[in-house]
Write a structure and sequence with these properties.
- The chain is α+β, with helices and mostly antiparallel strands.
- Helices cover 54% and strands 14% of the residues.
- It is built from 6 helices and 5 strands; from the N terminus they run H-H-H-H-E-E-H-E-E-E-H.
- The chain has a 5-stranded antiparallel β-sheet, sandwiched between helices.
- A hairpin with a 2-residue loop joins strand 4 and strand 5.
- Helix 1 runs antiparallel to helix 2 and helix 1 runs antiparallel to helix 3.
- It is elongated, with a radius of gyration of 32 Å.
- The N terminus and C terminus are likely disordered.
């Protein structure tokens, strides 16, 4: 995405440089014409040497051609269109920044594992998510915003951990964040994180909010803090 934004900026910068070059060329041509024609009385122009007259006509033709090129270049540089394209490209980045900013300001009122579900619901409300679930590495749901599809999402998260282990066994870097899109256009983020020797997966489902692999990172410190409280209280998935 950032590469697309840089491409648009480079394209606009090149267009400005081309416009500047055309304007400088136009100025030089105008100065040349003035230097050649100004000292010559208008009545004497028909009497000029044919070669000089031909050169003047050629210069005038080049001037007309440059004026047309300049007009075409200005017409192609539709400022509103460029800005609209840049806004369209930047929109997902702005949405990701909004989500991370909202999650970085989460309250710290949650004290133990029994508050995991409350924390997930707060995160879902702030980020505009439809479903969130926290599961362990064997696929057991520890907390969720609702019971809908929680077991299926936890099972998918467990498979992701298996895939990460297989990649690591081949010497490849293990993934910690994966975003998928289903046939209905919904985005699902699986964020793997660890606490001591145990691994967990935070899963977030969005029907509109743009998600990136690191979108949920601001929430991980609080999740680790709650999971570290070895209280038997675990929020029921309901």
């Amino acid at each position: 995405m950032l590469q697309t934004v840089r491409f648009k900026e480079d394209e606009l910068r090149r267009a400005r440089l081309e416009l500047s070059a055309v304007l400088k060329a136009e100025k030089r041509v105008s100065q040349d014409l003035a230097a050649v024609a100004a000292p010559i009385p208008a009545a004497e122009l028909p009497k000029l040497d044919p070669e000089v007259a031909a050169r003047l006509e050629a210069m005038e033709a080049r001037e007309d051609a440059r004026q047309k090129e300049l007009a075409a270049l200005i017409a192609s540089m539709d400022g509103r269109k460029v800005l609209d394209e840049l806004r369209e490209v930047m929109a997902p980045l702005a949405e990701q920044a909004r989500v991370q900013s909202a999650l970085s300001e989460m309250p710290t009122m949650y004290l133990h594992r029994g508050h995991l579900g409350h924390l997930l619901r707060e995160v879902a409300a702030r980020a505009g998510l439809s479903t969130m679930i926290l599961s362990d590495e064997v696929g057991l749901p520890l907390a969720a915003t609702s019971a809908d599809a929680s077991e299926a999402l936890a099972a998918a998260a467990s498979l992701l951990l298996t895939l990460a282990d297989r990649l690591a066994s081949t010497g490849q870097p293990a993934p910690v964040g994966v975003v998928t899109r289903d046939v209905e256009g919904h985005l699902t983020l699986h964020r793997i994180f660890s606490l001591d020797d145990e691994r967990y997966v935070l899963t977030a489902v969005s029907k509109g909010t743009v998600l990136a692999p690191d979108s949920m990172d601001p929430v991980l410190p609080q999740l680790r803090q709650l999971l570290a409280q070895r209280s038997p209280e675990v929020d029921a998935v309901a």
